[in-house]
Specification:
By secondary structure, the protein is an alpha/beta fold. The longest helix has 21 residues, at about 235-255. It binds uridine-diphosphate-N-acetylglucosamine and calcium ion (CA).
């Protein structure tokens, strides 16, 4: 889905300390719907066609590097002397050709579409720099875009440097730009810190570029929320709510029923088939894929899992597993990583499954633990079965073949194998393999002590 813009690179400013977040970790590593703030920005830049991306890091920079990895470049800003200073640290990264996006690492709502559009307009109008701006009811705190009578861009003024008249302007600078790389490089050479805050303002490059005779213009964001930054836990939560609504809306437009979008959290990568119904309290995470006509929830969490068509999952947790078509899970089941549940299977209440394969048409209806087991087709588990997979030192595998019948309250002490069509008697602790079609009984016989109760 990447656009084929040639030669766009991106610089993302992420050196800030984020004091208001009151956190021991870098602000840009805080997450919105499972993905760090800066990872959302990186993704938008990639979508817009940016091949080379560089992060300006500072506070907890090593941590950022470790988490984001080496698909992007890094430069370190040792002292935070302003947005212009941050960009100056990346001089080596700025090329002599093409365009460069300058973005912030804490604005996860910016979309690839908006950036793509900004690049297109920037090129069509042959601007030296194109600024993303927004019209805000309350512009407090932001740089204001000042225009002449004809509407041409004259300058950006920061809140602290603005006159009373300028403060009334509602068009603000979102802090995201598309520069001609060479033009940015030239402008940086002339940047000074001669202003109210004694900082190197990146916004001063706008005036420098204009004075050199290049065109400077703005693109007004269609959606004001795209510029929102996350400087506090409250903003983090607000941004999460906005992203949640955006994602849920997209799924509904594509034919998914979401009963209560306010109480449904779907991470950006999740795929959901048509006519699936999602009940409240559902969290769908990571690279989860859900088929068509499923009923998911209420109160379920599915992470990095693949769910077939017509599957019902109620009040359950499924992690890194596969559940195939026509199967029902729950209420109150827990499917742990590396499990593969077949088609038309019933996983009932209070069942836990870990690192196991469950064949088609098998029923595990209630109160059962299956760990490290390979279970065939059409197996029936009685209530209260435990696969005793751990001997205190090692985990062992258990094999239960097709059409076996596991009686209620059986312990299967691993490693053990129950062959095809074999039965285990209720209450048995099975320590030896049960041959095909045999009945394994492993319990003491009942003795009745007559007249045991003294009157
Ligand atoms: C900046 C703009 C302002 C715009 C606003 C939009 C300037 C001078 N002003 O102001 O016009 O309306 O963004 O949000 O650019 N950062 C660094 N190193 C630094 C300073 C900042 O990496 O030395 C990073 C911060 O981590 C932050 C981003 O740059 O993510 C913005 O910096 P900030 O100081 O918050 O700029 P604003 O004052 O908000
Ligand atoms: Ca800011």
């Amino acid at each position: 889905m990447e656009s084929n813009n040639t030669n766009v690179s991106t610089l993302i400013l992420a050196a800030g300390e984020g004091t208001r977040m009151k956190s021991k970790k870098s602000k840009v590593l805080h997450k919105v719907l499972g993905k760090s703030l800066v990872a959302h920005v990186i993704e938008a830049a990639k979508y817009a066609g940016s091949k080379k991306i560089c992060l300006v890091i500072g506070y907890k920079g090593e941590e950022v590097k470790k988490e984001i990895g080496d698909s992007v470049f890094y430069v370190t800003q040792k002292q935070r002397l302003g947005t212009g200073h941050a960009v100056m640290q990346a001089e080596e990264f700025i090329e002599d050709e093409g365009d460069i996006l300058v973005l912030y690492g804490d604005t996860p709502l910016i979309t690839g579409e908006t950036l793509k559009n900004m690049i297109e307009i920037h090129r069509r109008e042959n601007n030296g720099v194109t600024i993303l701006s927004a019209i805000l009811e309350d512009p407090t705190g932001y740089g204001r875009i000042i225009r002449d009578k004809e509407g041409n861009f004259i300058k950006n003024v920061e809140q602290k440097d603005a006159t009373k008249e300028e403060l009334k302007v509602k068009e603000v600078n979102c802090g995201m730009y598309c520069f001609k790389s060479k033009v940015l490089k030239e402008a940086l050479k002339e940047l000074t810190n001669d202003n109210a805050q004694g900082e190197y303002y990146l916004t001063d490059t706008l005036h420098i570029i204009l004075s050199k005779g290049y065109k400077v213009n703005t693109v007004i964001a269609k959606d004001n929320t795209e510029m929102l930054g996350c400087n506090s836990r409250e903003q983090l939560s607000e941004v999460t709510q906005i992203m949640k609504r955006r994602i849920n809306k997209k799924h509904m437009q594509e034919g998914v029923t979401i009963i209560d979008p306010e109480n449904t959290y779907i991470e950006p990568e999740v795929v959901i088939g048509m006519d699936t119904i999602i009940y409240p309290g559902t969290y769908l995470q990571g690279n989860t894929i859900i088929g068509e006509n499923c009923i998911i929830g209420p109160n379920s969490r599915i992470c990095n899992s693949k769910i077939g068509d017509e599957v019902k999952i109620e009040n359950s947790v499924i992690l890194e597993s596969e559940v195939n078509s026509n199967t029902t899970v729950g209420p109150f089941a827990y499917i742990r990583p590396n499990s593969n549940i077949g088609e038309n299977v019933k996983i009932g209440d209070f069942v836990e499954i870990k690192n196991s394969n469950i064949g088609n048409n098998t029923k595990v209806s209630h109160l059962t633990y299956i760990g490290d087991a390979d279970v065939g087709e059409r197996v029936n588990f009685g209530c209260g079965t435990v696969v005793v997979n751990y001997d205190g030192k090692k985990k062992h595998r258990t094999i239960i073949e097709d059409d076996a019948f596991i009686g209620c309250n059986t312990n299967l002490v691993s490693p053990v194998k129950v062959h095809k069509k074999a039965f285990t008697a209720a209450g048995s602790t099975i320590t030896k393999d049960v041959p095909q079609k045999a009945l394994g009984i492993a319990r003491t016989r009942q003795i009745n002590k007559e007249n045991w109760v003294k009157d």
